[in-house]
């Protein structure tokens, strides 16, 4: 079957290289899978990974120091009622959006509600950097429109959306290195940041590193170098290379979690959008007719 493109034009090949990179068509089947993963993660995030946000419903309103976006948009001060309404509206909208129905309407609602949930979360003195790529993912998903698991078409709109997420994932790492150098200088790689982290949050998987003085310092140098090299991610194009990149990034985050029990789950979900999920849906689509044919033969 010939793969169709919903948004490509005859002049695509004549576009500048950067334009072609941003709008390289992506199979809509990939979007269908990514939507389910992203939207079903939200109840997990609301009730487990950021369950502490609900506690802001019971703190004095004068403690609220809104982020810049909250001040610019004049978002309301969180009250007990507001926090609970946002929480449950977000969860219900995310579950509904995961079905694939009304993708633009429900997707936009999910993004706006999650953005407000993050403003409520981060306006009390602590701002996490692991949310931006996931927020961008939620922002771009509604721009694509309808997508089904067995949709064999490709879309430039989907390509742009996935490129935006990939760039944001890359910037999360690159800007992390920039912040280390900006605020800690080149003393950061030679300092004791990881040593302090292991002393405070170490596990059986990392406690032994305290007995190898040079190891954690070397790990800090490797971390900074890899983060500075993050723009190389943008040159990963083939499916095999994308799978390798995702496995590398997931391995890094699992290693960090095993060592100091810190995991950036929303960022990990954004990373999963890099995978060529359409290959998995195509495999299931091929297996389904074979299973039906086998059942029919057995019945006969």
Task: Please describe what this structure looks like.
- The chain has 300 residues and is mainly alpha-helical.
- It has one domain (19-283).
- Helix content is 62%, strand content 1%.
- It has twelve helices and two strands, in the order αβαααααβαααααα.
- It has helices spanning 17-22, 28-49, 68-72, 80-97, 103-122, 132-140, 156-184, 193-201, 213-228, 239-260, 265-272, 277-299, and strands spanning 26-27, 154-155.
- The protein has a two-stranded antiparallel ribbon with strand order 1-2.
- The radius of gyration is 22 Å and the shape is globular.
- The two termini are 30 Å apart.
- Residues 1-10 and 295-299 have low confidence and may be disordered.
- Its main location: membrane.
- The chain crosses the membrane at residues 21-42, 80-98, 105-125, 131-150, 157-179, 214-236, 243-275.
- This is HTTM-like domain-containing protein.
- It is found in: Endomembrane system.
Low-confidence stretches: 1-10, 295-299
The number of distinct β-strands equals 2
Side by side, the strands of the main sheet go 1-2
What's the Cα radius of gyration? 22 Å
Mean pLDDT: 88
Order of helices and strands: HEHHHHHEHHHHHH
* Overall morphology: globular
Question: Characteristics of this structure?
Answer:
300 residues, mainly alpha, two-stranded antiparallel sheet, disordered N terminus, disordered C terminus
Q: SSE layout and pairings?
A:
Elements: H1 17-22, E1 26-27, H2 28-49, H3 68-72, H4 80-97, H5 103-122, H6 132-140, E2 154-155, H7 156-184, H8 193-201, H9 213-228, H10 239-260, H11 265-272, H12 277-299
Antiparallel strand pairs: 1-2
Helix pairs in contact: 2-4, 2-11, 2-12, 4-5, 6-7, 6-11, 7-9
